[in-house]
Each structure stands twice: as structure tokens, then as C-alpha cells.
Amino acid sequence: MNRTLAINGGNPLRRGPFPAGFWGASVVGSEELALVTEVVRSRCLFRAYGDGTPHMVDDLEREGRAFFGVKHALAVTSGSAALFCAMAGLEIGPGDEVIVPSLMWLSDFNAPILAGATPVVADIDRTLCLDPVDVERKITPRTKAIVCVHFMGGVGHIDRIIDVARRHGVAVIEDCAQACGASFRGQRIGSLGTVGCFSFQHNKIMTSGEGGMLVTGDSRVFERAARFHDLGGLRPALAAQLDGPPRLEAFAGSQFRMSELTGAVALAQLRKLDNAVLEPCRRHHRRLRAALREACPGLCFRDSGDPEGDAGIGLYLDLKTPARGTWFAKALAAEGIPVGGTTRACNLLHSDYVQARRQAHPAMPPFGPRGDGSTPEYRPECCPHTDPIIASMVAVMITPSLSDRDADDIREAIVKVWTAQETD
């Protein structure tokens, strides 16, 4: 092997392209086509009624309950919708605070605001998930919930977050959009906290183009979320998930119902999630970590509360400092290896509209004059560890389409760059 780095004028280790960086979308095939065809032929596109007997969304919720190990499951139109329904399910509103991580997607910040509650941003640790220490530091008597984002397949220190939440009597909302199917010490994520929220958008581990799901073990939270997702009502299929008759009266809600077409694709994806998506990703992830531990003494990986539970969709190298991380990423990319996550999640404290606290109408809570009167600051300095940690990490995505040869090239390129760095 030519050991001169490509970044220094040597030949790149890899010249050919890698497979597209998608997970569930890369395994779409005959199973999805069969279920969608059944829906089209039935002419029953709405989950609750039609010329025949619609059942795809009902089946998705039933099989979702079994897969995630939860009492209740609610299929919705997106991961964002799942978060909005979680806020309604937990009765979060004006005067409440919701702790969210600095490294997140827009929806984690938006969901509390649209409920009239105030987002409070906490720092991350080297898991790229919430830092339990900073979470506890930012809890106040007004804290109603903690949104824990399982970032890019990882599980973080969710046990410590849940312990903090229990001691302070607040709910935990798991944002599982980027880690569907991951687990923590043998238990599927989404079932650990009070509520779990999943996204089935195109760039997710399982996909139906758009779509999502809320899961919970709390019947009251479920009934409130289900009513909110359907204009305040509760149709028979969802009422059947309750142990007895509905306990709540109707209230004003939104409309986040999943269609049978979306449900058909999501159902096919759920059925193949473990074998077709997670198994090959985890196999490559385990092989790469084991090989790199042996070949690159001193190389560190992203921290994890449970490495075996990681979904395996991204290999994260922790170079410890932003300078080393930036250089390593450039050198690895020059060797022909795609570097960086496929997510657009970022440190939202750099976002203009987050810093300005702009919302749909300036008079609305939480930031308007009719709000609770608090004026939180949203600046990067509020979470000083986030940017350095992100810059220290080098990510290489792992997809079901990755071949053994592709994985070997990733390993050899990392070894080449690491060895050159260590001998400089």
C-alpha cells in the first residue's frame, strides 16, 4: 500500500463511489410493493373505513407494540407529529419548560414552542447525546419533560437521564428518529422513557417516505396523544388499546392521521428492520471497531451507554480535539472515504431563528408578551462543550448496501491515516 497520504499528494486508497447513504430506503422492494398493491386494489386508503376493511395502520400499531415492547403505539404522519402529540399527551403547555439537547433537529426545539412551553437547551457529552450532568443542572421547578435524542444510532447514557428525571418527577421523551431498532441493555429504545417518538422519513433506518410513531406505556398519555392526533376524537381501533372505556372528553386537536398507503410501506419495513437493515449495519460496525482497535492502538470511538445496542449506522471516531478531528476528516475524505453524517441535525444554538426566538406569531407563548415572561438566551456559549465535541468526531456512515469490500476500504483508509498521523 502506498503510505503517502492523498492529502499530501499520494494516491487515494479508494477511487470508486460508495453506495448511497440510505438505510430503509435501500431495501425497499417486493414486500412494500405487495402491501401497497393490496391497499390500492382494496380502494381503502383511509385507516378507519372504506369499501373494504382497512388494516395496514392497525397492523403497524399492533406489530409496533410487540417490536418495541410497549403497551400503546400510535401511527402518525411524521416524527415531528409524534413529538407534537407527545407534548399534548404529557399536557405540556405555557409556563412549562422542556429540556432539549443542543445537538438536535428543528422539531425537538419546535415541539415545546408550539405547545406554548419554553425549550431549555442542555449540553451534550461524548456520546453525542444529552449530558446527564448538565441536564440536572438545568432542571427547575417548571421543568415538565426532558427530550433525549438518540443521535445517529447511539443510545447515550439514557439510564442516567431517566434517573435524573425520576428524582425530579419529570417525564422523559425519547426522540428515536435516528435510532429506530437500537436497544439499551436488551430493551428497545422508545420503551425506556415515558414516551418514545419515531420518524419514518426517507433518510431514516425504516422509512415510508414520511410517517412516524409514538409509543408509551402510559394509557392516559396515549389517549391524550391519540385524541390530539385526530381532532380530539378517539376512533374504535385506538380506543381498543385501552384497558377499559376512554376516560377523557374530546378537546381541540390537530390532524396527524397516517394513511393506509403510508402504513403499508411502514409495516413492510418494520417486518424487515432487524434482518435486512440492522443486522448488516451492526455486522460491519462490529467488524470495523474490532479491526481498528487492533490496528490503531489509542484510537477512540464515540462513547456509549451500551455499544452493543447501537444501531450500527455510523462509525464515529473520537479524535479528542477539534484540530485533530478536522485534519483527520480531511485526510480520510482525500482517501476516497465519504466522511460525515447524513443527518442535518446540528448545534441549533447557531440557528438564526432559534437565537431570535422567532415563532409563528410574536404575541404567542412562550416568547410573546402573553407568555410566561421568561427570556432564555439561545447562544452557543450556553452549551460550551457542544461545538468542540462535534468537531472532534469523524463519522463514516454504514448502510445495508455496504459490501465487505467497502468496509475493508474504510478500515484500510482509517489505518493509513491513523498510522501516518502517529508517525508524523
Description:
By secondary structure, this protein is an alpha/beta fold. The chain has a domain at 30-268: Aspartate Aminotransferase, domain 2 (3-Layer(aba) Sandwich). It is 38% helix and 13% strand. It contains 13 helices and 14 strands. Helix 6 links the parallel strand 5 (143-149) and strand 6 (171-175). Helix 1 packs antiparallel against helix 9 and helix 10 (322-334) runs parallel beside helix 12 (386-392). The longest helix has 36 residues, at 260-295. The radius of gyration is 22 Å and the shape is globular. The mean pLDDT is 96.
Would you spell out the secondary-structure blueprint of this structure?
Layout: H1 30-42, H2 56-68, E1 72-76, H3 79-89, E2 97-101, E3 103-104, H4 106-114, E4 118-122, H5 132-137, E5 143-149, H6 158-168, E6 171-175, E7 183-184, E8 187-188, E9 195-199, E10 212-216, H7 219-229, H8 236-239, H9 260-295, E11 300-301, E12 314-318, H10 322-334, E13 346-347, H11 352-356, H12 386-392, E14 393-397, H13 404-423
